[in-house]
What does this fold into?
Amino acid sequence: MSFALLDQIRSIFEGDPGVRKVADDPVLSAELLMLFRMILADGSVSESEMTAFRRICRDAFGIPETSIDSVIEYLNEFGYETNSSQAIAQFRDLDIERRKLLARHMAEIAKADSQLAGSEMQLLRRTLDLLEISPADVVKPQG
It folds into this structure.
C-alpha cells in the first residue's frame, strides 16, 4: 500500500491532519482565528486576503494545502465560541517575538487587498494594545 493511501485511511478514522494540528494547539487556533477575523474586519473577503491566509497557514504553520478548507470550517465553528479578547489571551504569556509574529501576520492580511479599512486598523490597534507591543514592532526588522 502506498503512504498516500494509508494517510487517507488514517484521515477517515482520525480526522483531517491539519484540523487535528489546529485543534490540538490552542495558541495556533487563537492565532488563526485572529487572522480570520482580520479577513472579515472590513466586511468582505477578498481573494488576496484568502491567498495571504493560505500562505501563512502553509508556510508559517505547516498546515497542508489540502487541509486549509477544513481548517477554515473548523475555525468557523470554533469562532462562534471564542471572542477576540479570549483568543488574544492565549498570547499574553508568550515571548515578545511570538506576539510580534501574530501582529505581523494580521498586518499582512489587512494589507493583502491593498486597502486598509478603518475597521481593520481598529482591530490591529486593539490587538497591539492587548499584546503590549508597539506599531513599530509590526515592521519586520531589516537584515
In short: Residues 98 and 136 are 15 Å apart (CA to CA).
